[in-house]
Design brief:
about 30% helix, alpha/beta, globular, TIM Barrel, single chain, eight-stranded parallel beta barrel, about 20% strand
């Protein structure tokens, strides 16, 4: 299987390294990325997110996935959620099923960290899962979830396409994983 680059544009990482959105997207394009996920865990409100998404769309015509923020729909092609987001949805009366119904044509992805979470994700109306962390990452504390070489074997159990996450580099190769989700590895 050919591994496809899934670029992860993390606002906090860009701020720390003094990298512009345009610079990151140029790097993602250099690696022929097909998908770009925008993640901003430091935003104070959705206006900050919207401003960045408008900026991203100036330079990125490909598939754009938004991490977490469901209130912005017209600028993105889909949403990616972490396991902790599932609990937030339940508290608000939503589920992945109601989100799928609401956003029929949007891509939906969910982070997973082990076989149990993959098997649960198989029961959900998702387009892909993120699986990881593959190795230690400089952008997220993932030490307790390092899968290493077992990630490729565990990925076989997913009925959804798999994006390997966490410390992934453009040179990594996998047999059962479609996407290489890379953030800081694109700007090293």
């Amino acid at each position: 299987m050919k591994n496809i680059i899934y670029a992860v544009l993390d606002r906090e990482l860009l701020n720390k390294r003094n990298i512009s959105i345009e610079q990151f997207i140029n790097s993602a394009k250099k690696y022929n990325s097909e998908i770009l996920q925008y993640r901003n865990k430091i935003a104070k409100n959705w206006n900050e997110i919207e401003i960045d998404l408008i900026e991203i769309r100036k330079f990125w015509n490909g598939t754009l996935i938004l991490n977490d923020w469901l209130s912005i729909t017209e600028l993105v092609d889909g949403y990616h959620f972490g396991q902790e987001d599932l609990y937030k949805f339940i508290a608000n009366g939503d589920t992945i099923f109601t989100i799928r119904e609401k956003f029929k044509n949007k891509l939906l992805g969910l982070s997973t960290h082990n076989l149990d979470e993959i098997l649960k994700a198989n029961q959900l109306p998702l387009d892909y899962i993120g699986l990881g962390a593959y190795r230690i990452s400089s952008t997220k504390d993932v030490e307790k979830n390092i899968l290493g070489e077992t990630a490729d074997e565990i990925a076989k159990f997913s009925k959804h396409s798999v994006a390997i996450i966490g410390g992934v580099l453009p040179t990594d190769k996998f047999n059962n994983i479609k996407y290489l989700a890379i953030g800081s590895g694109l700007i090293i």
